[in-house]
Amino acid sequence: MSPATRPSARGDLVPSAILGLLGTRGPTSRADVARALDVSPALVTQLTKDLIARGLVTELEHAPSQGGRPARLLGLVRSAGGAIGAKVTADHVALVDVDLDGTVRSQSTQRFDPDAPDALDALGHILGTAVDDHSGPLLGIGVGIPGSVDSQASGIVDAPTLGWSDAHVGAVLRSTLGVPVLVENDVNTLAVAERLYGTGRDHGSYLVVTIGRGIGCGIVVDGAVYRGASGGAGEIGHIPITTDGPLCGCGSRGCLEAHIGEDALVRAALEQGVVGPRGTAAGLRQAAERGDAAALEIYREAGARLGRALAGVVHTIDPEVIVLLGEGIDAWRHWEPGFEPSFRGHLMPARRGIPFVIEPWAEDKWALGAASLVLASPFDAAGATGDQGRLVRERLHAGADDQHAEPVR
């Protein structure tokens, strides 16, 4: 399919990907933008006209020419708006304050108890402090949650790991903060961030798979995150792989996550004497680093199970590439001996060449992913962000009109 006719050309993330590309690569010609994002030059010309009119992009000097008409470079007006991203976990909230191009101005971590009766009020207080500390136009706040979210705009959450069921996170936070708030499954936020700033810039369809406390998956098809009928697409951690396996946090038995999530790996390490009664995932990894045979086998089996499950997902989605990351990625070299042969061996011959990319991990990636919801929402052609996206767009127009920002060179 040609770039001009790709479904991703109408995707809501392409204009934001242009902003992310200019932010991460610096001044770039329209032709180079089109090549990097695999879209037509005509589409880039059309979109950049709007971005320039909005005060988000500016034309800079001509690029050196090898003959013919020299190309004008595009530069990002970074200060036309910013966003706050928050990743909520079972014991803390990770925060970032970012510019329009995803540059992190500041990051912090705040203790948080999701089981507390006033948990949402406490979360509102944490985010309120971040809003007070933000300087310049604030487009909105993105919140990543480890669970199912009905829609980014309403933000009704079911998150078993947090003990939340039918939690009206979006409504409570919007009432408390008075700014647009977008709520999404945390792995989906990483998929959006990859589209704007990472591997997804070069691919229209891909998977983002996280390993750590749980096993998650964000699905991008033709340039847009696939959420499913109720926002729960990508819960590969709950693929059943044994009929009478260990109890999973979702209430079922034998889920992939119940076998290879962090708690499951530590439990296996305890049972086999790899770690002591107070053993942790870090202790298991250290044992593997020392060459402990039992520890290495725990990781090898986990990798094999992940490989088999992902082969099935690849056959279902047919992505171009898989991105693997997460809190547990530091131990990947111990997962890989089991993963690689299992993954390739369970794929049909035509799919065995699919690449996977291992990305280093830092917790602020979760929070940057959440902020990316806001940075992508002004260009939400499909309406996934609802009224909150409209409010972000209004703030973006106001921010661009009210200041004379300097371009990023």
From TrEMBL:
A Pfam family this chain is assigned to: ROK
Coiled coil: none
Family the entry assigns: Belongs to the ROK (NagC/XylR) family.
Name the UniProt record assigns to this protein: ROK family protein
UniProt superkingdom: Bacteria
PROSITE patterns reported in the protein's UniProt record: ROK
InterPro entries (alphabetical): ATPase_NBD, ROK, ROK_cs, WH-like_DNA-bd_sf, WH_DNA-bd_sf
